[in-house]
Amino acid sequence: MKVSRAPVWITGVGCVSAAGIGHNDSTRRLLDEALPGGFEALLDPGESSYFKLRLEEQWCARFPGFHEGEAPNLLALLAIEDALDSAGIDSADLRRLRVGICLGSTTGGSNYQEEFATAYNTGKLPDPAPLMEYFRNNSAQFLARELGLRGPVQLVNNACTSGADAIGIGAAWLDANLCDVVLCGGTEIILMKICYGFRSLMLCSDRPCRPFDRNRDGLTLGEGAGVVILEKAGSPRRPLAAMLGYGCGNDAHHPTTPHPEARGLALATRTALAQAGVPAGEVDFINVHGTATRHNDLAEGRYIAANFPRARVVATKGVTGHTLGAAGALEAVFTVLSLSKGRLPASRGFGEVDPEIGVEPTRAIEEGPYQCALSFSLGFGGINSVLCLGRTP
Amino acid sequence: MTTNVRISGLGHLSALGQGKAALMQALAGTRRAQLVLRNVITARGTVEVPVYQAPEVVLPPEVPESVRRRMPRISRMFHATVLEAMADAFGPGAPLPDPERIGLVVGTGLGCLDSANTFHRRVILEGAAGSSPTLFASSVQNAMAAHLSISCGVRGPTCTVTTMEQSTFGAFRVAIDWIGNGAADHVVLAIGDELIDFNAYVVAHKPHIPAELSPRAPECTVVAGEGVAVFLLSREGALNKIDKSGICRIDDVQLCPERCPEVPRVSAAAYGAAGQWTRYQQWIGRPSDEIDCHAQLFGSFVTGSAIETAIAALRVSRDGKPTACVQLPDHGEAQAIVLGP
After folding, report:
1. Contact flag A252-B153 (C-beta cutoff 8 Å)
2. Domain containing A129: what range?
3. What are A312's strand-pairing partners?
4. Domain count within chain A
5. Which residues in chain B are contacts of A157 at CB distance < 8 A?
6. Which of A86, A190, A199, B141 has the CB geometry, 3.0–4.6 Å to A157, for a possible disulfide?
7. Does B123 contact A196 at a Cβ distance shorter than 8 Å?
8. How many Cα atoms occupy the beta-carbon half-sphere of A93 within 13 Å?
């Protein structure tokens, strides 16, 4: 397999989730203090089965005409502003440079459609205006307009791998010299249909999830956004980490259940490592998808146990919940923070090793240094995506 | 820029019918799509809305029942068109190359919106009892890719691009980058949208409902349509057959070009929005009669640029004249694909 990858730098990261509002807050909570239960303050008491962010007041204060349909877009905007701040890119740079945006989401703008559909389906014969807003407010296009970007614009909709894929596509844009800087990531809010859908599949736990734990009983949904800023190596800004490789593979097995032997994940990992030019034995840690569902953790964990026996394993969904289209990007941000800080977070929710898996994720903050990491994402539709990230001097 | 990617197979489905022959006949003026009238109930009463509707497709018996029952109409439309493109590239009934070396990219504006709405309606009306796991899985935007990968056995990199009008060339870009960086030898690139009740409902609320689509007219002449174009893309040299008889080469896919590519022929992905043709003419910088546009053959829909590109590819294959197909979204930067012999 011929693969190639020009070096790409990650010069900024931004994130908003139940793990923290902004990368500094997230670093403090995940990597400095491991605040026990601190994230639980962000749980919506009325919806304790998922990690809901309460940001509506903030939106309304900043955008007087705020409509809840814009929530995923504004969540991404917060993460982008955080990332631009960490990279030291200002609005003049955004106008001067060719800046692209590639986002992943499963729901971007869909609130408008839900509002219209609720009225339409109950026979109210509504005005189609909310539907037109849905058509116009695709998250990536909304943010390109909001930020005045003049580079490529794309929304990726690969279910739970979307955020990771957006980063892989952004790197390809730099390779093709389509732009100078790419804002890549994912954003997600939890819609009613998502809650009902996951419950219908009997995949949800009623408490914060326990990835890879022997007694895990399902996922916990969450809201969030994660963004990385990609630039070609040699940018005047200081890199936080390097994006070394990206791979994607399809199970072609089942719409909602991963292949038991992680067939697509294996291909995605091989491709990412080949692009990076890194042997499997040099991977220091893996930020796993770790949804805490029986099938995901079994397939993913067994693959890791067989192929990466030396790598440390980190699962962060016990803190953030499963943020679906944002998860791959959010976890890429956490991976960058770990590489640059030389420290791994505790895998909250994990307590007892599952003998069927044989993998023991971090129980507490662990000290590095760490040179190379993988971030795994698995999604509905049998999609698997892997990012290979490395520490920069 | 010249890529190493060729369009080695093509599939098509629209109101013109199924197959690339239907497109060729439409270009030759020997085939026309029939408009269908839909009655739409609005607060103003019942409104007749003309639409371009594709024929229903029949899936081959090889598709297992367990897969078939999960596939909504749009997935069936995609599936039938993918089979045509694969047969065109690899030969009818020929075994596939290594399935891990075949990628899959879906480009769509509205995706599975119809399934999403059906799921939503059942939840509203019946609560948890109405939320079907099968329907939920078919309502996520990458459901078509899921169904295609399972039913066609494609296991390489997979992606669904949903950037409204910008989906078509965004999806092309993903596909050629995968072939370019070695992640795949071939990519099944399936782009399209389905006509759903919401489309007709929107049109029914317009003050004037046009009887026919005229993309060069200054006023709005949108007539809702639907369709799918599938391009089997292959690295040059990946198959001997392709080198000999592939349809055309992809010279470039530009996601935000500052100016129109300088090629002998330019095709505009206009679909009848008000004032749209003037914008195309100004950006392309040519007189109206020197710009191709074919939306009047198949209707207005978000990813109609895919059918326009399929037509451009067939014309390049026939006369060898390099052609650019241009998309100017209502909101966003221009995009273009350049095809060569």
Report:
1. yes
2. 8-390
3. A285
4. 1
5. 111, 140-142, 160-162
6. B141
7. yes
8. 14
Contacts 24+ apart (CB under 8 A), B57-63: B57/B13, B57/B18, B63/B151
Tell me if B331 and A256 make a contact (CB, 8 A cut-off).
Answer: no
Instruction: Answer yes or no: is B130 within a domain.
Output: yes
Residue A153 forms part of a structural domain:
yes
Token pair, residue A194, equals 């998502």
**What does each of the 341 residues of chain B score in pLDDT, given as a tens digit?**
677 899 999 999 999 999 999 999 999 999 999 999 999 999 889 999 999 999 999 888 888 888 888 899 999 999 999 999 999 998 888 888 999 999 999 999 999 989 989 998 999 899 889 999 999 999 999 999 999 999 999 999 999 999 999 999 999 999 999 999 999 999 999 999 999 999 999 999 998 999 899 999 999 999 999 999 999 999 987 765 544 568 999 999 999 999 999 999 999 999 999 999 999 999 999 999 999 999 999 999 999 999 999 999 999 999 999 999 999 998 788 999 999 99
Domain that holds residue B31: 5-247
Q: Which CATH number goes with the domain that contains A336?
A: 3.40.47.10
Cα-to-chain-centroid distance, residue A57 = 24
Q: Which positions in chain A touch B157 (Cβ < 8 Å)?
A: 247-250, 268, 271
Evaluate whether B314 touches B24 at the Cβ level (below 8 Å): yes
Contact residues on chain B for A98, CB-CB shorter than 8 A? 256
A vs B, Cβ pairs < 8 A, gives 222
- Tell me if B94 is assigned to some domain: yes
B75: domain CATH number is 3.40.47.10
Its pTM stands at 0.96
Domain count, chain B: 1
Cβ-based contacts of A200 with chain B (< 8 Å): 128, 131-133, 136
